[in-house]
Structure formats: structure tokens, C-alpha cells
Design brief:
The chain has about 600 residues and is mostly beta strands. It folds into three domains: about 140 residues, Sandwich (Jelly Rolls), CATH 2.60.120; about 90 residues, Immunoglobulins (Immunoglobulin-like, Sandwich); about 350 residues, Metal-dependent hydrolases (TIM Barrel, Alpha-Beta Barrel). Helices cover about 10% and strands about 40% of the residues. It is built from eight helices and 40 strands. Strands 20, 21, 22, 30, 31, 33, 35, 36, 38, 39 and 40 form an eleven-stranded mixed β-sheet that branches. Strands 1-3-8-5-6 form a five-stranded mixed β-sheet, with no helix packed on it. It has a five-stranded mixed β-sheet with strand order 2-9-4-7-13. It is globular and about 90 Å long.
Length: about 600
């Protein structure tokens, strides 16, 4: 798409006005190829955007503002042949700013371009970009028109939180904040490790949200800011989901500092963990052992979680998250072999390691998909080659690499159980970023004493994890109890003629559930609808149960709850990382670990 601005606008550009609109609308761009998503038109507006315009030369720095949506590949923004920067690789709707260096603008013949840097890859990229404004002031002046101080409390006390800022159209709004190790700041998102953040914004209408992950309410306030205004915004949140006796764990987290992709520093990662309420974080930078504890103590965040040293053993044929590693000084497992048996032997020889999680089994990495139909029989749960399945856990939800079909990995997991494997289901985030993929959005709840989350009994937590005493959460929790006593990871002995099965679905008031599924040995036994009217108390979305006949043989039960995805900007659920179809319905889910039935 290439065009010149009309004469009326060119006249305005030549005037000394602070703001000039270069593109008032959002434009749909896509390089040659099929649609990435079905909610985009078949035909894009263009493969790139090019705007020609005249302007007064800028003796000092100026600022370019634009709005972007659904960006997944690398797109460059250039002005007069010089790259100002790149669009943020993030599917979120956000407003971003670029510095325009002094003496960049010419009196005539300026050209602004937005174009994809590489040819179309295996995954096409439908994006929208526009609402482009050229401002004659430097970025600090553009963003510094008003000052806001947000404080977040729980029961009157400051608490780490995520603060989300959107403009009048619901797009994430870039803010300006002074550097602080207790803040992690990205466009529209501020994680505040001490529960407070001071930042600057352009004058305008905004919505401010504060939350602390899945277990908490979200507080919201709308406000119109005037130039030179200073405003204090107190926001109070409360715990809504009762998880007493369970600790929240994210077993798959990274930093840019060590994994070399993404954007989160170690300090930012710890601030985001505290801000999302993750109590047992596992450090899993690629082929490294990293100890978060010293930095947590230095930042004053050690009271909010118990960090565990782990590793994402990244091999030519699979990725395995492993923990707990006894010391950061321990030599990481040799990851070079394509042989699973050798790799897993190396993993379990690492001092302290008791857990090996098979990560994102349906995703393609290094040309290999671990559970590709040519390698894995999904009906029997057995490999079609010589790989030994001696891992003892697998990701059933990875919120940074969500599946098009929410039940695909659960079916794979249930097939493994049916084949006699002892495999724990896992929820994780695979987050490398501060804001793109929310750390702890996918998480695993482990049955263990949570009275002091700064001193969790890691040995007991790991033992219970391996036993399957877990619940997987991606916006919901699904509790399962058999005969009023036995939960996930436990065995019901000497069965009576009938089984009493009870279930609950938990979630905050900003999440919905619409159905719960009960499985026995991987086969769907019951499916119940969940309605808003089923909410009888805060945090409890559904309560119910079933009576089952005594099974003829040893068996296992599990439940999965499903609901519509979250579109709100403060906790938006992601699109599939490697989609299997341009059609996608966003979802949340919760799942229990297995309850085993021992028939004697």
C-alpha cells in the first residue's frame, strides 16, 4: 500500500503543529500467502504500508506514534530509509512510540514504510497497523503530559501486582516510568513488585486495571487525565479462589539474560512471578542451572515464593524440563544426543533431579514433533520407534504454545496412563517475556503445605508432583474427589459396588466455565454444562458429582473443565503458537491429576 497524503494534510504538515496524522485508520497487511487467522479478510489491504508526505524539517528529536495488532513476525518501521525500530512481536492491541532523530525529516519527499523484514515463513502473519501520528516533540514530552501513581493493596497492605493501562479504544498504552528493579514495564503493562508504580502518560482517557493472577480479583478505574495533572489511584484486590493446601507452580520459565530470547531480565522475571502469584517457580533457562534466590533476596521479594533450580534440557529431538537441581554449580545434563534413553539417563544422573517433563509434545522444534503421528500412536500411548518413554511428566497445557484443540495433549496424556505410564500432567507458561506470554498463566497446583510460601518443603512438593497430586490450571481449577476422601495422585483401595465422585470448578469472577468432563481410562463418561446460575459462592463456578459402578479392572478417573477464553487486556489468553487451523476459539481450562481405582 503506497500513497501520498492529500493537499489539505500536506499543508497542515508544513505548519508548526505538534501533531500530524499520517494514517487515521488501521490497515490490514500480509505478505503473499493464505490467511493466518480466519477473522482477517481473505485479501489484505497490502503487503506493506508506504506513506509519502512533506513536512517541516526537524532540528530536534520528534516522535512517531502508531497502533499495532496481531504482530508475530519481524516488521520494520523506516523513515526516509533509516530504521526507526520494529513493531513489537506481540499479538496484543497496543500503542507504541518511535524516536525520530533530529534532521530526519525533509521539507518534501518523506517516506514512511512498515514492512515485513523476511519473506513469508511457514506461518503467515496477518497484522493491522495504523493510527499513525507524527509529533514534533521528543518522546519524553509526548509521554510526560500527566503523572499517575497507582498503589495496589490486599486487605489494606501493598501486594505485588500487574497494572494494565488501556486507552479509550481498549489498546494497551505505552507509559514512561523511571527505571526501577521493582518494576517490569512494557506497553500497557507495569508489574509492581512493591505494589506501587509511578509513571507518565499523554493526556487522555484511560482505564487502569490491577490484578495478581488467577486467584485474585481485578480492580478497575477509568480516568481522564489532563495536561500537567498528577493523580493517585488506589486499587484494592482480594483473593477469590481458595487454594489452601496447594502451591502454584510454573515449571517452565525463562529469562532473556540466560536463554537469549524473549525480553525479561532476571529481576523482571522475579517481579512478574510475584505479580502473578506463582509460589514455586522453576528456573528453566536452556541447558543452564540458574538460582533465582540471591536476586529475590536482594529485591526483597523472597517472601512471595520459593525458587527452585531447574533446566530446560534442549535436545535435537525434544525439550525436557528437569528439577530440582541440587546446586547451580552442578553440571547440566549433556543435551547433545538425539537418543532419548541417553538423554534421560543424563538427566536423572544430575544431582537432585527427580522430575523430567516432556515439553510441548505436539510442537515442531528443530524439525521434530515428539508426538507426531509418525512417531507416536495416540490410540495406544506408545512410541512407534525405539524411544523409551521414561519421562515422568508432560505438559498438557503450555500457555505460551497453546494448542488449537484444547484436549489434544490431554488425550495424549490419558493414552500414556492407559499404557501403564506414571506421568504427571503439567500446566506451564514457557514465558520468556514480561508481557507477551504471561508467566504463570498456565500453571500447576501441587498438594503441599502452603502456610509459608517463602519456605515451601521442596522435597515434599517434588514427591507429591511425581505422585500426580496436582491440578492443571489455565484460567480454571477442576477439583476431583472420590468417596469423599481420595484426590489426584491417590489410589482408592478395595472398591465398594459404587463410587461416589465429587467435583468442583473454581475461578475468579472475571473467568467463565461452560462445561465439565469426567473421564475414565481416557473415555468420556459424563459431560455437564456449567451456567452462571451455578455460582453459589465466590470463587466456585460449579459443584456436582456422579455415582459410578465398580469398574471391572484397575482404572483411573480425571476431570477437565472448559470455558471461553479471556479477552480482557489484563489477562488475555493467547492464540496458538503453531496453529493447526486458521479457525480458533479461545478457551480456558482446568484439569485434575488422576485418581486411581484399585480393583482387588
Amino acid at each position: 500500500m503506497r500513497y501520498a497524503l492529500p493537499l489539505l494534510l500536506l499543508t497542515a504538515l508544513a505548519a508548526p503543529a505538534a501533531e500530524i496524522v499520517l494514517e487515521p485508520s488501521l490497515r490490514h497487511l500480509r505478505v503473499d500467502g493464505p490467511r493466518e487467522w480466519a477473522n482477517f479478510p481473505q485479501k489484505p489491504d497490502a503487503a506493506s504500508l508506504e506513506i509519502s508526505f512533506d513536512a517541516a524539517p526537524n532540528a530536534g528529536p520528534a516522535t512517531l506514534r502508531l497502533r499495532q495488532q496481531d504482530v508475530k513476525q519481524a516488521w520494520a518501521v523506516t523513515l526516509n530509509g533509516a530504521e526507526l525500530g520494529r513493531l513489537d512481536v506481540d499479538e496484543a492491541d497496543r500503542v507504541v512510540y518511535f524516536d525520530v532523530p533530529a534532521n530526519t525529516l525533509r521539507a518534501t519527499g518523506n517516506t514512511l514504510q512498515v514492512q515485513q523484514l523476511t519473506a513469508r515463513t511457514l506461518v503467515p502473519d496477518d497484522i493491522r497497523v495504523g493510527e499513525i501520528i507524527l509529533d514534533g516533540r521528543p518522546r519524553a514530552a509526548v509521554l510526560g503530559e500527566a503523572t499517575v501513581e497507582v498503589s495496589v493493596t490486599e486487605s489494606g497492605r501493598p501486594v505485588p501486582a500487574r497494572i494494565t493501562v488501556t486507552n479509550s479504544e481498549g489498546a494497551l498504552q505505552t507509559v514512561a516510568a523511571d527505571p526501577s528493579e521493582l518494576l517490569a514495564v512494557r506497553p500497557g503493562v507495569i508489574y509492581a513488585g512493591a505494589g506501587r508504580a509511578r509513571f507518565r502518560l499523554p493526556a487522555g482517557a484511560y482505564t487502569f486495571h490491577a490484578g495478581r493472577g488467577f486467584e485474585y480479583s481485578v480492580a478497575t478505574r477509568k480516568l481522564t487525565l489532563k495536561r500537567s495533572q498528577n493523580v493517585k489511584i488506589p486499587l484494592s484486590i482480594e483473593r477469590q479462589v481458595d487454594t489452601a493446601g496447594w502451591v502454584s507452580s510454573d515449571t517452565h520459565i525463562h529469562t532473556f539474560e540466560h536463554s537469549r530470547h524473549g525480553d525479561a531480565s532476571v529481576a523482571e522475571r522475579l517481579v512478574t512471578l510475584a505479580g502473578e502469584g506463582i509460589e514455586l517457580p522453576i528456573a528453566t533457562d536452556h541447558n543452564l542451572h540458574i538460582d533465582y534466590a540471591p536476586v529475590a533476596r536482594r529485591l526483597g521479594l523472597a517472601g512471595f515464593f520459593t525458587p527452585v533450580i531447574g533446566d530446560e534440557v534442549t535436545t535435537p529431538t525434544a525439550h525436557f524440563n528437569v528439577f530440582p537441581v541440587r546446586s547451580a554449580e552442578a553440571k547440566p545434563a549433556d543435551q547433545r544426543s538425539p537418543d532419548w534413553g541417553q538423554t534421560l539417563s543424563n538427566i536423572f544422573a544430575t544431582p537432585g533431579v527427580k522430575v523430567a517433563i516432556l515439553n510441548h509434545a505436539r510442537d515442531l522444534h528443530s524439525g521434530v514433533r515428539p508426538f507426531d503421528p509418525s512417531l507416536f500412536d495416540a490410540a495406544t500411548g506408545r512410541p512407534l520407534d525405539s524411544r523409551p518413554f521414561v519421562f515422568n511428566a508432560m505438559e498438557t497445557v503450555n500457555s505460551g504454545a497453546i494448542q488449537t484443540d484444547p484436549l489434544q495433549l490431554f488425550r495424549d496424556w490419558m493414552a500414556l496412563l492407559g499404557a501403564g505410564q506414571r506421568v504427571t500432567p503439567v500446566g506451564s507458561s514457557d514465558s520468556h517475556d514480561v508481557a507477551r506470554y504471561i508467566v504463570g498463566q498456565g500453571r500447576t497446583y501441587i498438594r503441599v503445605d502452603d502456610a509459608d510460601v517463602s519456605a515451601i518443603d521442596v522435597e515434599q512438593a517434588v514427591f507429591n508432583f511425581v505422585q500426580g497430586r496436582v491440578m492443571v490450571s489455565y484460567g480454571l481449577l477442576a477439583e476431583l474427589t472420590v468417596n469423599g476422601k481420595y484426590g489426584p495422585g491417590e489410589t482408592v483401595p478395595a472398591l465398594d459396588d459404587e463410587l461416589s465422585v465429587q467435583a468442583r470448578v473454581l475461578g475468579p469472577d472475571w473467568v467463565q466455565a461452560d462445561r465439565i468432563l469426567l473421564f475414565q481410562d481416557g473415555k468420556l463418561l459424563h459431560e455437564e454444562p456449567i451456567r452462571l446460575a451455578d455460582r453459589k459462592q465466590p470463587g466456585v463456578l460449579w459443584t456436582g458429582g456422579w455415582t459410578l459402578p465398580r469398574p471391572a479392572r484397575d482404572s483411573f478417573l480425571n476431570v477437565i473443565a472448559l470455558g471461553p477464553g479471556v479477552s480482557a487486556p489484563y489477562w488475555a489468553t493467547a492464540k496458538p503458537y503453531q496453529p493447526m487451523s486458521p479457525e480458533f476459539t479461545p478457551y480456558v481450562l482446568g484439569a485434575s491429576g488422576p485418581v486411581r481405582l484399585d480393583v482387588r
